[in-house]
Amino acid sequence: MKNKGKRNGDNNKLIMFPNLEDHLLSKAMSLVEEKKYGNARELFGELLGQDIHDIRALYGWAVCSVELGDYREAEEAVIMLLEENTSYYYDVFRLYLTILIERKDYTTALHKIMAVSKKRPIPPELKEFLRHMKKFCQIRLHEPEWSNDDLGDQVEDEPNREYSEHDEVQSVDWPALEKADSKNQMLLLHNLANQLRASHLPEIKRFLLDEKQHSEIKTMLLCAIKEGDLAKEISVRKFGHIYKAKLESEEFLHKKFADQIEKEIRMEMDSDNPTLADLAVEMERTFTMNLYPKPLRPDSSKVWAALFCIRAMAAESKREISRVLERFQVNDDDYQLAEQLLREAEAHGIWS
Questions:
Q1: Which residues of 194-224 are buried (b: 16+ CB within 10 A; e: fewer)?
Q2: Which CATH number among 1.10.10.10, 1.25.40.10, 3.40.50.2000, 2.60.40.10 corresponds to the domain 1-103?
Q3: Treating both helix axes as pointing N-terminal to C-terminal, what angle do 301-313 and 255-269 enclose, rounded to 10 degrees?
Q4: Cβ contact 314:129 at 8 Å
Q5: What is the CA radius of gyration of the chain?
Q6: Collapsing DSSP states into helix, strand and coil, what is residue 238?
Q7: DSSP label at 248?
Q8: Which alpha helices (H) appear in 103-214, and where do they start and end?
């Protein structure tokens, strides 16, 4: 770690007076409340210069480092806290997961979630949070990168080649796609996306109506159909019902509504807690995209913004939830309706 302040050997350079540590801690916490994270971290550094194992100072240093985007420093401080076996272990562990996700180190995050579950009894209020974080990391870890460049690299250097019906149908191994696990399905679908032709529509329709196929894979296939201009609309079974996906609509993948939800989240949370806002938006984007074409009810961006902030906070107490609902000006009935829809989708494995 960087030099966080003066060491014990430098005490002669400090003006010593009673309760110096409490004074520095109080001042540092005031600066955190004022969102002056750089100045606050300097004071936490002074405390660490006197005692590198000061739990309060380490935690303050870590929080300020996260807010300043200095994730390497934050992670080092958090690891020291976890090794100290602090009584606030799980609060620190949540912060550790936040740092790993900010660094997009989803592999380490998954490893740590599974490790802590084996080593320690997990409090009930933390179990749901860890479950969602595990699914979130799995999604991010297995999500392929879609880009025009990636697809373009796979197009043959024969733009005028004519395809026969036989060639087109045989180019896609549908049985292999259907039997693969979700991770390999993503890779297979990514690789064959630019090979799909109108003659594949019968197989595509069968896949989309297959209740056993995962909603996220079906969403990817809808994107491939739209990209290849293979159909204007197509039926898809999701969450036990059949819906009509309108591929040319501005509501495709709920994108317009998702943009409104993100705007609400950013407007309310970015200034106070940008890390939480980022996590809420990530969860919201994944959910709305994979829910499509099932309608979002209630049709209120504020309600869904509040719901995903509550999920990102892992808020469970009525007091915490009410505080968020009040901030977004959302009534409890609408929140419960949205929460019910989210749980119904989760029962069908929307995150995994």
A1: bbbeebbeebbeebbeeeebbbbbbbbbbbb
A2: 1.25.40.10
A3: 60
A4: yes
A5: 25
A6: strand
A7: T
A8: 106-119, 124-142, 148-152, 165-170, 174-179, 182-192, 201-208
Tokens at 231, concatenated: 């159909």
Q: What is the dihedral of CA 250, 254, 258, 259, to 10 degrees?
A: -10
Q: How far apart are CA 301 and CA 311, in angstroms?
A: 15
Predicted TM-score of the model (pTM): 0.54
Question: What's the DSSP call for residue 242?
Answer: E
- CB-based contacts of 114, cutoff 8 Å, min separation 6: 134
Q: Please give the chain's pLDDT, 352 residues, in tens.
A: 655 554 444 444 344 444 567 788 889 898 988 889 999 999 999 989 888 888 888 999 999 998 898 988 898 899 888 887 777 788 888 888 888 888 888 888 888 888 877 766 777 767 777 877 887 777 776 655 444 443 333 333 333 334 344 443 344 666 666 676 665 666 666 666 677 888 888 888 988 998 888 888 898 889 889 888 899 999 999 988 999 999 988 889 999 999 999 999 999 998 888 888 888 998 899 899 999 999 999 999 999 999 999 998 887 789 999 999 999 999 999 999 999 999 999 888 786 5
Which token pair is 262? 């993100």
C-alpha–C-alpha distance, residues 51 and 49, integer Å: 6
Q: How many residues does the chain have?
A: 352
CB atoms within 10 A of CB 5: 22
Tokens of 184: 């390999």
Q: What's the burial of 225, exposed, middle or buried (CB within 10 Å: 0-12/13-18/19+)?
A: buried
